[in-house]
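Bumping with the actual sequence this time:
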Amino acid sequence: MLGQARLLTLTGVGGVGKTRLALRAAELLRDTYQDGVEVVELATLETGDLLEPAVATALGLRGGRPDLMTVLLDYLSGRRMLLVLDNCEHLSAVCAPFVDRLLRAAPRVQVLATSRQTLQVYGEQVLRVAPLPIPTPGATLREIARQDSVRLFLERAAGAVPGFTLHPGNMAAVARLVQRLEGIPLAIELAAVRLRTLPLEQLTRELDERLDVLAAGDPAALPRHQTLRATIDWSFCLCSPGERRLWARLGMFPGGADLETAEAVCAGEGIDRLDVLDHLAGLVDKSVLIRDGLRYRMPESLRTYGCEQVPPSELRQLRRRYVDHYRKLVEEERVDQMVPEQLERFLRLQRELPNIRVALETCMSEPGLAPVGVGAATAMWCFWLLAGSLTEGRYWLERGLEQVPEDHPVRAAGLWADSMLAIRQGDLVAGMPRLHAAIALARAAGDQRLLAYTLRTKGVAAFLARDAPRGFALVREALALHHAIDDLDGIMFGLYVGATYGSNEDPRQSAAYGEELLGLCERQHALVFRAYAHLALGVAWWNLGDSRRAEALVTTATEVTGGINDRWCLTQCLEVLAWIAGAREQHDRAAELLGAAHAMWQAVGASPEWMSHHAAWHERCTRQARHALGGPTFTAAFREGARLGSERAVAYALGGPRGQPGRDRRVLPG
């Protein structure tokens, strides 16, 4: 069907296996798509406003411009790939127009969606995912054993009761059980694990009784969604009171939870903190939870059911504990601090982002909590930048700022964070008024640290407006304030802006800032920021005419950022290495590196043409390579580089053969 359709939607009842089928198809077909397959999990999104940022993140795109949909369409328009959108039903109102627009703009992109209902987009093909086949009445042992529903039950039953097999003595009960469950895989799995505590005959009898109660008064067979619901109800009732409470409370966590989080949020009102681990183990044994390393996650149908089971009397306190936990987490795991564990902090925020979104949505929806949400979103400002999620950061900040009173203490920092993200996106119209408001509030409150941050951001805006003297003056003013209050983190950011944005106009001043920045990062063992220091210093030395020193610094930055997949820094590294190759008259290499950088500039939603410290050198390198190679040869090399992908581009930039992929890498989307 994918061979004949631009959009294929897998529909069916919950628990029937739509997601498993889609992921398996994506795995099998990955090599048939020139630009690969990307999976976007939508079940963790609480609002359709985050659909575009979620897709951009999955594709590795940086929200570099405010019109994120345009970035997506530009990126996908020339690609041949499969995009899997999993669990669309709760976002169908936004998924449908999104998919329709995407398919019109990207003629070689296909979409595989899973949803309990169709998207109703023109050209949509629908595959209704049927439950597993079940035995017919009167089937023989051999015929029963062939049915996939029975095979699944036997596999799960053997896991619950080692040695469990199908034989003439139990074949009728097994056939009866999978028939009553109508072949729904999740229902079969939930029933099979009960064999640990119930004999097969009793298990079948109890299930019959529960389904018969629901079917009473309706001579027709139960609709399949009621069959699954009845099975989940039955599994829920067979849990201990503590397990039931924990199941319900864990429904709040779309991204799963570790033990520490479950204890912090879910304990209380009937759950002793010391019992949480035992309850988690019990839910894993009952196939309600899936253990994934140190985290516990729940199939979406069971998570949705759990959310419905929280008593209204407990819900308010549960939400407050949830919000308080994630407020503390984003403060404790800030990535804007010069600490050795900076990378680990980023990775934890990345893992917890689906849950953080629930906390932020709760803050924006419940009276009185908007300031908490603004504070949390502001604390994540550096995460939004490194993750390339500028649009999402602005979304949460602006929703909260609309509700926060003019005189609230969090307002000034929130306005600064929102303005900074807007200015980095080139949205000066929205960003500058908010920045000026933040400056006024910081001055009125005597907040020297925040004032320094606002002045630094104003310096970035001046550099982008090609007013380097004004930019340097504002950076110096910001640095003086940071030094006065001994703010190392602020000093680092000020040095980076001075070292980077003004390198064309005053490379010696930029080099001085870069040297100071590198020394600070090394003393603080700040891995991520050190790579940016190497890049900034490399660009400064390039402008000073020392290409060998520039190459050594930028190569070091490439090794680090390639290893953690920080695309924003890596893109600039490839660009600078292209200039260096061109200066050495290695024009074929320069053309390929320009192509590799071009693909990544597209991915991060930016362009060297509108970055003051890149534009002139980019144009000169491109012009020289095209002249030396000739138009057709340059274009062929450029396209070859654009097809490398980030890992092969890094390997090539570091001196390896063009087609050689890099080593396994830790991933830090940037």
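The tokens above came from a reply further down the thread. The first strand starts at residue 7 and ends at 11.
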